[in-house]
Amino acid sequence: MTTTAPPAHPRPVPEHSPGAARGPRRPGRIRRIGLPYLLLLPALLLELLVHLVPMVIGITMSFKELTQFYIRQWGTAPWSGTDNYRLAVDFHGAVGEALLHSFLVTVVFTLLSVSLCWLIGTAAAIAMQDSFRGRGLLRTVFLVPYALPVYAAVITWAFMFQHDNGLVNHVLHDQLHLTDKPSFWLIGDNSFYALLTVSVWKGWPFAFLIVMAGLQNIPRELYEAAALDGAGMWQQIRRITLPSLRPVNQVLVLVLFLWTFNDFNTPYVLFGKSAPAAADLISIHIYQSSFVTWNFGTGSAMSVLLLLFLLVVTGAYLLLTSRGRRTADV
Amino acid sequence: MRTMRAAAIGAATLSLALAATACGGGSATGGGSNDAPKTLTYWASNQGASVSADEKILRPELDKFEKKTGIKVKLEVVPWSDLLNRILTATTSGQGPDVMNIGNSWSASLQATGALLPWDAANFAKIGGKDRFVESALGSTGALGKDPAAVPLYSMAYALYYNKQAFAEAGISKPPVTWDELVADGKKIEATGKNGLGAEGSNLSNNIHQVFVLAKQHGADFFTTDGKPSFTSDGAVAAVKQYVDLMAKDKIVNQSNAEYAQNQSLSDFAKGRTGMVLWQTASATFKSMGMKDSEWGVTAAPVQSGAPGSGAQTNSMVAGINMAVFKNTHNLDGAAQFVKFMTSDEEQKLLNTTYGSIPPVKAAQLDPAFNAQGTAVLRQTLAGSAQALPQVADESQFETAVGTAVKDLFADAAAGRAVTTESVRAKLQKAQQQMPAK
Fold it and tell me: Which segments constitute the ABC transmembrane type-1 domain (chain A) (predicted)?
C-alpha cells in the first residue's frame, strides 16, 4: 500500500493554465542545471582529444596494413583484419618471437627495478625519519636524480658506461680490480644491468619522496608506545611503519610499475634506436617496429596488446590490494 | 548572472573550436601550389661540425638567393638523428618544409610514401636538365624505372685514410690495395701498440655501407632483382663475416670499436691511436679534430684482388645527400628556383668545397678544388667503382635489420664469442624474417 501525503504548502496553480504550472521558472532551472555541464565541456573535449581520439586512431591503425606506402594518407590504407595481431603473437615467427623476448625482458626488468626502487626509497625515508644534523641537506641530495632532466642524466650515464674511458670500468677494473678486463656495458648481455642501474638511480628518489610523505602521517605515539612495550627497530618497522604505509605503497608500486614498464627515454638515450637484445624493452621495441621499420600497423597492434596487458595487470592489482585492505579492515 | 552567461558562451565556443580541431587533420592530401610565392622553408641536413656551423655556411648563400629572386628562405638545420622522423611526421601531417635534404639511400623509401615531388623531364628542365648530373649520383635518387624523387646535392664515397706516422713506425711503405694487404698492414700496426683499423660497430648505417660493398665484391646483393630481401646468400654471409672478422679473427679492429657509433673511430684516428679508417669524406672532420692534412694519406678502399672498378671490384657505395621538394609545398615555382640555385655550378663548387664532398654536377666536378689530396680519390671512386645502395622501398628497414645484425655480431666478437658462418647466417636469417612481408 502506498500513500501519498499532500504537500504541506501546495504551490498555487493558476486554474487557467495547468500545463504551464512551472513554466515561468523553467529556463532559469535549465540554465542552472546545464551550466556546470557546459563548463565541464571544454575539459571533457580536451580529454577526448588528448586521450580517447589518439587511442581510437591507434586501435584503428592496428587493423590496417599501414606501411610507408600509405603513411601519407593513412586513412586510405587497406584493412588487414587481425593480421597485425596474428603476426605479433605468432611466437614461432621472427616478429612474434622478438616481441615475446622483449616482453619477458621488460617484465624481469620492471620487477627488479620497481623492487629495488621501493626498497632503497623506503630504507632511505625511514633512515631520514628522525631528525639529525644535515638531514635537510641529505634529503635534497637524494632528490637530485629525480630533479635532473632525464636526457642529461642518462647521457651522462652513457658516458660513464663506455668501455674505454668510462668511469664504471675505471672503478670496477682499474681501481677495485673486480673484473679481469674492462666490461662492455652498452652492448651485449651486460646492457641489462646498465639499464637497470640507471632506472633504479632515476626511480628511487620518487619512492623516497612518497614514502617520506607517508611517514609524516604515522603518529609518533605509536612508536613511543611500542618502544615502551619493548619493540625493537625491526618490530616497529614491521608492525607499525609498513602497515601504516600500505595505502601509500599501493599507489607508489602501481605508479612505479607503469612508469618503468613503459619507460622509453632511458633505453633510447642509453642505446639509441637499436637496443641490444638483453635490454630490448618493449617501449623501444614498439618504437622500432613502428618508426624505424615503418610497420605502423604492426606497431599499433603491439601497442594495443601492451595496453590490454597493463589494464589487466592494473585491474588485478587494484582488486587484490583493495580486497586485502577490506580483509584487514574486517 | 551576466558573468555566468559569458562563461557559458566562452565554454561552448571553446568546445566547438576543439571539436572542429578534432575533426581536422588525419590524412594529407593535395599537391603543390604557389600560394606563398615569396617564402620557402628549407630543412638542411647537418653536414658540418655542428648545426650552428651549417647555419653560418648556408645563411650567406640563402641571402644571395633572396637577393636574386626576392624569395626569403627560412632555414632549419636538422641533426641526422632527427631528420628521418621529422620527414615522416611531415609526411603524415602534410605540414612540412618546401624543400629538404635527404640521405640519398632513403630516396626509394621516401619515394614510396608519395610525399616527394617526382622529378620528371619537365621538372628537370627547370634546373638545367638531367644530363648536368653524374650518372652514379642519379642512381641514388629513387627506384629504378621511376622518375627520381630527389636531385643530387652533395656526393661522397668511401676511401681508406691512413696515418702516415703509424705507417712509417710499422715499416709500411705503401698503402694496401687488397683486403689481404690491409689485414697484413693492420697486424704490423698492431705490433707497434696502435690499433690497425677503426670501425663503428654500433653505427647501423655504417655497418650497412661496409657490408654492401663487401657483398658486391663477393658477387652478391642484399635484394633480388624484383626487390625481395636476400640476406642469406653465400656471398652476403661471406661479406658480413669478412667485415666482423676484422675484429673477431684478424684482430686488427680493437674490441672497443664494437660500441662505437658517434665517430669515435675518427677521433681515435685523429689522435694517432689508429692506423687506418675506412670512411666517406673525412678530411673536414679530421681538420675539425685538430689533425693536419700532412699527417694523413688517402687511397681507394680495398678490393679482394686487382684494382677497383665496376661489378665485383666495387669498393664504395655512392654516398651523399639529395635535395627533395615536398609535394605539399606552397611555393612550387620558388622551390624549383631554389633547387636550381643550389645545384648551379657556382654554388656546387662553393658548398662542396666547404663540406669536403664532391659535386654531383659534372661541370662543377672539373674544378681543381676536387683534384686535391682529400677529394681526388673520392671523385675517381664515384666515377668508376662506386655503386648505389639498393633503391628499394624497404631500404630503410634493411639498414635497421641488417645493420643491427652486424652490430650484434660485433658485440659477440667483443665478448669473445665465436663468429662463425652459421652464426652469421642465423643473424641474417632473423633480419630477413623481420622485413615486411610482401
Answer: 103-317
